[in-house]
Write a structure and sequence with these properties.
Largest sheet: 5 strands, antiparallel
Distance between the termini: 39 Å
CATH topology: Jelly Rolls
Order of helices and strands: EEEEEEEEE
Radius of gyration: 13 Å
Oligomer: single chain
Strand content: over 45%
Shape: globular
Amino acid sequence: MSADPALATPNVQIDNERVIVTEWTFEPGTETGWHRHGYDYVIIPGRDGKLLLKSEEGEVVADLKAGQSYYRSVGVEHNVVNVNDFEFSFVEVELK
């Protein structure tokens, strides 16, 4: 029997009628767990690093740069894993 994976830590900073802003902190090897995004969203990495993105289409390692934002549309379903040997964080802004 395998142990449950260690999960990243979400810190919701704003949740109002327009947006949800969450800072996600990942210790090495932690993950979000499988989830489906209910809103369009923007990710703003806090530092340079790599994240493993697992989806039904397969696995991709994303090379992220501090402050270089990216946008994804509603409906994305995936699991995000910190493959760095250091803590990694990003801010996620969900657009309601």
